[in-house]
Amino acid sequence: MRVHDARTDHPMRSMTRALVAVAAGSSLLAAAALAGAAWAAATNSSAGASTASTAPKTVLRVDQVGYSLSETKRAYALTAHDLAGRAFVVRDDGGRAVYRGTIAAGDDRGRWSPSYGHVFELDFSRLTQGGSYTVELDDGVDTVASVPFAIATAATLFTPVLDSVATFFSSQRDGRDVIAGNLDRRPSHLDDVDATVYETAGLFPDPDSEVPGELIPRLNANGAELRRDVEGGWFDAGDYLKFVQTTSYAVTMLAIAEQRAGRTPVVSGEIAHGLTWLDKMWDDDERVLYHQVGLGTGNGEFTGDHDEWRLPEADDALDIPRDAVPGSEGAASYFLKYRPVFAANTAGEPLSPNLAGRVAASFALAAQRDSDAGLHESAAGWFEKAKHVYELADSDWPVEERPLVTTEPRSYYPEDSYLDDLALGGAELARAAILLGDLDLAAELVVEAAGYAAAAEGSLLNLYDTSALANAELVTAIRALESAGRPVEGGAEIEAELLAQLEASGLAAAESFARSDPFSAVSDPAEWDVVSHTFGSIAVVRLAEQLTGDRSYADVASGARNWALGANAWGLSFVIGTGADFPQCPHHQIGNLLARPEAGLTLEGAVVNGPNGSEWTDPADPEWWNPGFVDDCPAGRVDRLAAFHSPAADGERGPSDGYRGTRFLDWSGVWSTSEPAIDFTASALLALSLEATADASAPSENVASRVDDAA
């Protein structure tokens, strides 16, 4: 979980708004979602807070993408009224009632806020006919309806979403190979092609501060500044830093998603783009891993990336000589134009095992992709690089004495686990070795990686814990070796242990939380990274299902996806561009300066942090709002979602007195809720790829629908 993520927690300065004149295109599903956008906007802006004489308007929340044919289907009524005994109806796109149900007292899942004293669950699981629908309800005061949603096969619903989500990675591209897209992106940071490498030792004199000291260039064998081509890659989040820590995670998630759901143009193109940059960051001859481009914070003499709110190409336009002294007169922005590069090790020295494991996984997956495509020489080259990285991993890294290498400063991503990364790296190397015909090496790698997996403490899949994915990939490798006639010694016992670990990766806790949450959320919406953890839970459930056939947690995955895609208090899909209503004002420089949602120009595919605790989302706290530093969105800073926040009782965060103590602020100045990131988006893409291939022919084990009559 991210703690006080400091990537963009810095004052920003405004710059002139860029003009965009791009016609927005949309897929069939996106077009269908747009049909409900006006409804969603009207509903979310008119709900209003309660007064002494007027209750807020009841609103209905649904999964805005839709429901697969046979899964559990739930809508939620957020209301001030007791709806027990009232009827609801599902109508098709012609207005015909196709399903009727009655709300029971037991369907009340509890209070949400002082204004909304009830959240009722409306189950219509027995409706299995494909089509476009809305849910309608008379609450005794008004007749209200949901946004339109679809019922279809899982592949029909979610396959088109994959390329849409991957479009965010296109928007994050840096370097020459930029895709203009609907935001008219331009090439940026072209000087990264010849970037200077700086030492990390002593970079932060105060270990508790994110303010750097003097940057000292690393010298080559001839005593000259060491230079490196690090052009390309993806920006990490709303800023313009580039990290191996997050890029390797993203590449791995996208590549596995591609294996599970098949190749699609945007996903495949972004995997190739990410791999090209990771390859630049690894010097296979010298055995050095470069792990970061750019520096977030300035020090009063020179400007850091987080100190300027701008488009990335503005850095290229800076008129600063290469030989200027950073921080001298006219050269305060030196490190914005000539960005520093940092290395995780010196030549041939051991690597921080978290980075080694996930980079090895990325390279091994590249070998698998090329092997599948018949590019055997290229596959062998990627495999050798993966082995070289993995061999440098220090598997006995003393975390308590020496923190893992993640980012500079480490506080941006303070990871403390690495056994999961080593397990994942070993699993992907084993799978690549099988494809390349080295079955003995594959078996050895499986046993070694399974040992790491057994010692890892697993939880829901996210940037900081890949153990569930490692367990699943190792089981796949064990079964492939069995089929190839080279079984792993003790393979049955190892597989059983891996499957037990996979199913223990936070699923019971997710199910328990979902039972207590009014909207069946699987993770606390008052904590950091709730959306990422939600998609991680979906991925773990579907991975386990594919390997075991056990659908015991199918409802957990369905409910989690419903919540992330609109069936939550705010009625938002937390994936920009997917669904009828989604965040309009991301904390993202490109999204803030170029996107125009009212014209259909959005930061498509971006997955945001999501709701957060009351202490992180106080509208009156300038630390979170950064007033005056971003291009104001929304206009006038009007909180269109104010009616749906759940303040904590007595000003304390947490589920006290039935309230969750959580807000989602859709405002560009609030990075704690509205900032997207490549790791969030990669987790979502993997989860949705698994949803697209989920078996829709068998009903969930836990379906307990109640029907008055089906019309």
UniProtKB/TrEMBL annotation:
Residues 1-40 form the signal peptide. The keyword Signal applies. Belongs to the glycosyl hydrolase 9 (cellulase E) family. Residues 160-687 form the Glycoside hydrolase family domain. Keywords: Carbohydrate metabolism, Glycosidase, Hydrolase, Polysaccharide degradation, Signal. This is Hydrolase. Residues 58-139 form the Cellulase Ig-like domain. It comes from Agromyces badenianii. One of its GO terms (biological process) is polysaccharide catabolic process. One of its GO terms (molecular function) is cellulase activity. The keyword Protein biosynthesis does not apply. InterPro entries: 6-hairpin_glycosidase_sf (IPR008928), 6hp_glycosidase-like_sf (IPR012341), Cellulase_Ig-like (IPR004197), Glyco_hydro_9 (IPR001701), Ig-like_fold (IPR013783), Ig_E-set (IPR014756).
